Amino acid sequence: MAEKGPERTCIYCRTTRNKKELLRFVLAPDRTLVPDLLAKLPGRGAYTCMTSVCVKGAADKRQFSRAFKGEVKGADGAGLIDQLATRIEERIASYISLANKAGKVSSGTDMVLERMKDQSPGFLFIASDISADIGQKVKALAERNGVEYCTLFDKEKLGALIGKEMRVVVAIGVGGFIEPLKQETAKLRNFFEEGR
């Protein structure tokens, strides 16, 4: 039987899970609350579920102050949610840029659609401002071929991440970048499961 690993309890909803499934927070020396996305920062941690509901609830109910036994700076619910979303999106963006440098990226609607007919990429990013018709076409082909996708970033940002003009779709080829990208996009989806 596989070892479960250490468990922690969400300070808001009181659900107990493996600590890898939770979001860890630590205090900076000036008692500012810091989200520890990689769970590697030193110090005592407080945990919430990886959802905006639990993060906001813990902040609103002053659970961070209780967990760290004193006043905590930066424990504003809306501010924490924005900060976490930005940091997760930055991590996703850095993986896309790294995949591009490694030659694992193809972009542009025609090239990606052609590539999906010949061989399936590992993951797709579809611009948030793609036209409805093209978006449906790309999503339908991705679903038919079993390719995961995420609608994130606008055309300009997607293009900039790979050093190009605007791009409505970016495909990441199968390889070492796929698993971290899937994990980070799953974090983002889970975080906003109640709607952004």
If you had to describe this structure to a student in words, what would you say it looks like?
This protein has 196 residues and is α+β, with helices and mostly antiparallel strands. It folds into 2 domains: 7-75, Hypothetical Cytosolic Protein, Chain: A, CATH 3.30.1230.10; 90-191, 2-Layer Sandwich (60s Ribosomal Protein L30, Chain: A). It is 43% helix and 18% strand. The chain has 7 helices and 9 strands, in the order βββββαααβαβαβαβα. The chain has helices at residues 52-60, 63-67, 77-101, 109-118, 132-145, 155-161, 178-191; strands at 7-9, 16-18, 22-27, 33-36, 46-49, 105-107, 123-126, 148-151, 169-172. It has a 4-stranded mixed β-sheet with strand order 6-9-7-8, with helices on both faces. The chain has a 3-stranded antiparallel β-sheet with strand order 4-3-5, with helices on one face. A two-stranded antiparallel ribbon has the order 1-2.
Number of domains: 2
CATH architecture of the largest domain: 2-Layer Sandwich
Please identify the top-level CATH class of the largest domain: Alpha Beta
Spell out the helices and strands N to C.
Answer: EEEEEHHHEHEHEHEH
CATH-defined topology of the largest domain: 60s Ribosomal Protein L30, Chain: A
Count of DSSP-assigned helices: 7
Please mark out the parts with pLDDT under 50 across 5 or more consecutive residues, or reply none: none
